[in-house]
Amino acid sequence: MPWRLARQTETPTRWGSSEGGDPGADGGGAEARSVRCECCGMAEECTPTYIGRVRERFQGTWVCGLCAAAVTERQAREPALSVAGAVEAHAAMCERFNSTVRLNPKLSLASSMRDIARKSGQHRRRSIDGAGAATATAPSACGGDKLARAASTCALPYV
């Protein structure tokens, strides 16, 4: 699979010109090496200094730039979530994505539709619970002889 084909470089490459570039430009660690994201598996070439800063920020875990943005966004949405928790949640989501969508897109579409239907049902149940218990009324245009909800939840106009 293409996202797992990248391999570690055996010989580090130098940034800059063929004469050595500027070795002090990034704090002395001018040798680039390949490192793999622990969430999505994508490989990037980075300097050891940069790798150290990223691992320090994400508590010892190397994450690529895209995953770092996703983890930061998740923390913004859920402030109580720790960095390690956000990285772990994102890694689980990436693993689920790579094991379903990439392997069988049709199955992924079916499971996504199931999830949408499940969330919609949960939303309906919450709105019924919030509006009060269902009451028995005369047959409505959308409910038939079943227990009808409040008239405001009926999609069809009252006749």
Describe the fold and architecture.
The chain has 159 residues and is mainly α. It is built from 4 helices and 3 strands. The protein has a domain of 105 residues. Helices cover 43% and strands 8% of the residues. Helix 2 packs across helix 3.
Features:
159 residues; mainly alpha; 3-stranded antiparallel beta sheet; 4 helices; 43% helix; elongated; disordered N terminus; DUF1677_pln
Describe the structure concisely for a colleague:
Pfam families: DUF1677 (PF07911). The protein is built from four helices and three strands. It is mainly alpha-helical.
Low-pLDDT residue spans: 1-27, 144-151
The global form is elongated
Measure the end-to-end span: 59 Å
Strands in their spatial order, largest beta sheet: 1-2-3
In terms of DSSP E residues, the strand content is 5-15%
Largest sheet data: 3 strands, antiparallel
Q: Please, how many helices?
A: 4
Number of strands: 3
Q: Which structural class should the secondary elements be placed in?
A: mainly alpha
Rg, rounded, reads 26 Å
The amount of helix comes to: 40-55%
Mean pLDDT: 74
State the order of secondary-structure elements, H for helix, E for strand: EEEHHHH
Protein name: DUF1677 family protein
Pfam family, one: DUF1677
Biased composition (Gly residues): 18-29
InterPro entries: DUF1677_pln
